[in-house]
């Protein structure tokens, strides 16, 4: 009698899937996600620097009217800052490169998932065809067909989509943690405690 397993999925199941995907495809997907979110983080820092232009100009004007910088420091004139067309052009370049990285990440992951599905299907078919005749006499035909329909569909659609969703969420979280850590370095201390709490859960 066929029984469905419950509980957590064994890591060997995931390892089998990633072996079917292939190491090069896995690295390609991860690298494109790193590039995409790195460019997103870079564009955010670029916008922060852009918004600081007004503060720098006001600081320069104030120091010029007093004949010097704040506390005797020298303030660079606004002319040395980036012009508005340069700011917009670099921000657009960040967006374009990020879009290309996202496209190639989705393309490579789709090819990788298709490759894994094909390999797993072929392995399943070869094992079924290699079974003894008694297996087909004792196993209902619908159960065998279900392995090639429902289970393969789960690998084709559900598992592939969940893999991409996991990568997106993981890199979004990493991007947010990096941005917050740059703004508030003390957040890293609290992050250790938060990570310990989640690990305990």
Automatic annotation (TrEMBL):
GO cellular component, one term: endomembrane system
Segments passing through the bilayer: 12-36, 88-114, 169-198
Record keyword Nucleotide-binding present: yes
GO molecular function per UniProt: ABC-type transporter activity; ATP binding
Cellular compartments annotated: Endomembrane system
Keywords annotated in UniProt: ATP-binding, Membrane, Nucleotide-binding, Repeat, Transmembrane, Transmembrane helix, Transport
Domain of life: Eukaryota
Membrane topology: Multi-pass membrane protein
Pfam families according to UniProt: ABC_membrane (PF00664)
Residues in ABC transmembrane type-1 domain copies: 27-201
Keyword flag Iron: no
UniProt protein name: ABC transmembrane type-1 domain-containing protein
């Amino acid at each position: 009698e066929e029984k469905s397993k419950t509980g957590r999925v064994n890591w060997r199941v995931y390892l089998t899937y990633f072996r079917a995907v292939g190491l090069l495809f896995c690295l390609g997907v991860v690298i494109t996600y790193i590039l995409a979110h790195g460019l997103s983080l870079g564009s955010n820092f670029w916008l922060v620097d852009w918004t600081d232009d007004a503060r720098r100009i006001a600081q320069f004007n104030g120091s010029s009217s007093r004949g010097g910088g704040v506390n005797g420091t020298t303030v660079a004139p606004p002319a040395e800052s980036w012009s508005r067309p340069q700011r917009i052009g670099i921000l657009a370049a960040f967006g374009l490169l990020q879009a290309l990285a996202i496209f190639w990440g989705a393309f490579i992951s789709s090819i990788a998932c298709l490759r894994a599905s094909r390999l797993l299907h072929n392995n399943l078919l070869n094992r079924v065809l290699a079974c003894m005749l008694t297996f087909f006499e004792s196993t209902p035909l619908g159960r065998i067909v279900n392995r090639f329909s429902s289970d393969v569909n789960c690998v084709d659609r559900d598992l592939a989509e969940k893999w991409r969703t996991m990568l997106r969420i993981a890199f979004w979280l990493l991007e947010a943690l990096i941005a917050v850590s740059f703004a508030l370095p003390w957040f890293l201390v609290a992050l250790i405690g938060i990570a310990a709490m989640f690990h305990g859960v």
